[in-house]
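Human: Here is a favour to ask of a fellow structure person. Comparing notes only helps if you start from a blank page. Give me a protein, with the fold worked out from its sequence. Please set it down just below, with no commentary around it:

Assistant:
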Amino acid sequence: MSNSNLFLYIGKPIKNEYGRIIGKVASFALTPSGIFDAVFVEFGDGQFTKQPMETLKFNGAEVTFISKIKNQASILCDQIPLIWRKDQALKDLNDKRKISPDLYQELHNSFTSVLTQLKKDAQIIVDEAAIEIERCQEEISSLSYAIANLEIEHEIGKVDEENYKNAFALLQETLKRATLEKTDFELTKSKVSSVLLGDSQETTQRTKTYAEQVSVAQKLPEPPVVVYVKEIGKAGI
C-alpha cells in the first residue's frame, strides 16, 4: 500500500477483531527513508499510544487492531517446540559422537538459554490471557444483568416495544462479541499452557529415564555377565 493511501486512514475508526470500535488512527511514524514504522492510536478512553505497524491491519476502508496476546502466543507455540526439538537433535548427535563434547555443551547452553526466555514470555502471555478472560467474564455478567433488567422493565410496561427491540438487539450483539472474545482468550491460554506443560512433561520423563538407567547400571552384575538395557523411546513435539 502506498504512503498516500495510508495517510488517508488518519481519523478512521479502529475496530478490534470482534467488531468493537476501540479508537481511531491519529497519525503515522515513518523512518528517514519513508517506510512506515508505527501508528499513533487514540484509544476510546483518551489514551494516546504508538503501536507497531504489525498490530494493525488495513483492509479497504476498515482498520483492525490485532490482539498482541494472540500474535505472541502463536509465535511462542511455534518457537518453543522448535527449540526443544533442535536441542534433542543436538543431544542425539552428541550421543552418536558426531560433534565434539565442547561444541555440544556450547550449543546446548545456547538452546537452554533461549528456551528459558521463551518459557518466561509464554508464562506472561498465559497470565495476560487470564486477565483478559476475567475482564470478558465481568462484561458478560454485566450484560446478562442488563438484559434481565430490560426484560423486567419491558414486561411491566415501562419500556415500549420499539425501544425494547433496539436495546435488546444492541445488548445481544455486544454479549455475542464479548463471549467470542472470551472464548478466543481461553483457547489462546490453553494452547500456550499446553506447550509449557508438554515441555515440562518431556523434561520430567527425560530425568526419570536417566534415573532409571543409572539405577539399572548400579545393579548390573560383574563381568562376564552382560545385561542389555532397552532404551526408553523419546517423545518429540
